[in-house]
Amino acid sequence: MKPLLLVDGYNVIGAWNVPRAERLSIEEARDRLVHLIADYAGYSGEEVIVVFDGHYTDRPVRSRMNVHGVEVVFTKHAESADNYIEAACEVAPKWRRVRVATSDAVEQTVTLGRGAVRISSREFLLELTQVRAAGRGHMREEKVSRGDILSRLPPHQREIFDRMRKGEE
Question: Which of 130, 132, 103 minimizes the C-alpha distance to 41?
């Protein structure tokens, strides 16, 4: 089972300079964050759930959707993202690695008490940037096309196949 990362979405957006600098609407900031996290999740190998508060909305039920492999949850009226994250930490098996990205001090304390590892929103944004950059660099170094089996072979084996293709062997 993959490690689990629970992200308090609005908390991370609040710590992120990009939405303010680019004057993004809350919807645009949410979409951009979710897409960045989906990219990050592909490199990190973690199961990621991003939770957005519905506490002050009139949403009668919790909603979920999958965006490029990341589960995005909008809590229902009278349910905070903190409530959802605490419950998810509570039901996670004790042997599963669970991390929570939030800067909410109370939430950090509660999730630590439930066995999760906490990471502040700013630390998470830094990690997100570093992991994505390292992953992209690795992909560039390999220059591997997912559909090209030949490019995945060691150079000496590629030479053998190339000579065979040309009829030299």
Answer: 132
Q: Which residues contact 158 (CB under 8 A, 6 or more apart)?
A: 150, 151
- pTM equals 0.77
What element of type H or E holds 6? Answer: strand 4-8
Please name the residues in contact with 45: beta carbons below 8 A apart, sequence gap of 6 or more: 2, 3
Confidence of residue 135 (pLDDT cuts 50, 70, 90): low
Tokens of 119: 């990471």
Q: How far apart are CA 151 and CA 164, in angstroms?
A: 16
Reduced DSSP (H G I as helix, E B as strand, rest coil) percent helix, strand, coil of the chain, to 5: 50, 15, 30
* pLDDT band, residue 131 (cuts 50/70/90): confident
- Tell me the pairing of strands 63-67 and 117-119: unpaired
CA distance 93 to 149: 39
Q: How far apart are CA 24 and CA 154, in angstroms?
A: 46
CA distance 158 to 167: 14
pLDDT tens digits, residue range 48-67? 999 999 876 778 889 999 99
In sequence order, the β-bridge partners of residue 6 are 49, 100
